[in-house]
Write a structure and sequence with these properties.
This protein is an alpha/beta fold and 235 residues long. The protein has helices at residues 49-56, 79-89, 105-111, 120-133, 149-161, 179-196, 207-210, and strands at residues 5-18, 21-34, 38-42, 64-69, 72-73, 90-94, 167-171, 199-204, 215-220, 223-229. Helix 3 (105-111) packs parallel to helix 5 (149-161), helix 4 packs across helix 5 (149-161) and helix 5 (149-161) packs parallel to helix 6. The two termini are 19 Å apart. The chain is built from seven helices and ten strands. The protein has a single domain (5-229), classed as P-loop containing nucleotide triphosphate hydrolases (Rossmann fold). Strands 6-7-8-3-9-10 form a six-stranded mixed sheet, sandwiched between helices. A four-stranded antiparallel sheet has the order 2-1-4-5, covered by helices on one side. It is globular. Bound molecules: adenosine-5'-diphosphate and magnesium ion.
């Protein structure tokens, strides 16, 4: 599968208005991410991890500097272009799962595909493949309230992967899980990373996540203080 730079960040600054002044959340970040990486943004609460993930995911825009994702500059995208980038190429996983409670497991995953023009049979195949990846084909008719936290996060992984995105952004995905479930979902994501060459980017301060990463970029006060390649990570 093709490798190469998938995300390129150059002198990124992000400021938020606070009253009449500005708060600098990201303060001059330069970083390249290659296709197929399984990497983490780590650092204390408030260091800028979520802000950076949101900009990479084109949910927010840089104040200064450039962020290029799949050859598209985030700052220059129209509303329509940024939705298209997200819908086709980027999957999101959140700490709180964000599942729709009235829908079944199957429907929660299918929901991510409804904006795409697929035949009913192609859609069904994609949903069942994604549920198989995460080991939940026996729970397709369950509603989220009937599932454990680990199972809910596995549904969220299936939902993020069903479109076979190039990039998955996972913001503190293990924060609400016990150790066993955390390892299970990390193994699932690592397997998908290897089999589909999906690039995974985590925001985390969980040591369990760090054991699986191939690269760890440490943030402090909106700056990169360390960028380490990790050998022998669990896989
Ligand atoms: N919309 C916003 N308005 C003002 N300040 C913000 C906003 N979003 C984030 N911040 C601030 O930016 C800093 C970085 O936040 P965040 O990226 O959420 O950190 P992390 O995910 O590492 O905990 C924090 O000090 C936070 O309060
Ligand atoms: Mg955060």
């Amino acid at each position: 599968m093709k490798n190469g730079t998938i995300i390129s960040i150059d002198k990124l600054i992000k400021q938020f208005p606070v009253g009449k002044s500005k708060f600098t959340a990201l303060n001059g970040l330069t970083l390249n991410i290659e296709r197929g990486e399984f990497m983490g943004l780590v650092g204390p609460s408030g260091s800028g991890k979520t802000t950076l993930l949101n900009i990479i995911g084109s949910l927010d825009t840089p104040s200064m500097g450039t962020v290029t994702v799949l050859d598209q500059s985030i700052s220059s995208l129209s509303h329509k272009q940024s939705s298209r980038l997200r819908n086709r190429h980027i999957g999101f996983i959140f700490q709180t799962y964000n599942l729709l409670p009235v829908y079944t497991v199957y429907e929660n995953v299918e929901f991510a595909l409804l904006l795409q023009k697929l035949s009913a049979s192609a859609r069904k195949k994609a949903v069942m493949d994604a549920l198989e990846w995460v080991g939940l084909t026996d729970k397709i008719k369950s509603k989220p309230a009937m599932l454990s936290g680990g199972e809910c996060q596995r549904v969220a992984i299936a939902r993020s992967m069903v479109k076979r995105p190039d990039i998955v952004l996972a913001d503190e995905p293990t924060a609400n899980l016990d150790s066993k479930n955390s390892h299970h979902i990390l193994q699932t994501m690592k397997k998908l990373n290897k089999e589909l060459n999906t690039t995974f980017i985590f925001a985390t301060h969980d040591e369990k996540v760090m054991q699986y990463l191939n690269r760890k970029v440490s943030l402090e006060d909106g700056q990169i203080v360390k960028d380490e390649v990790i050998e022998n990570s669990k896989n």
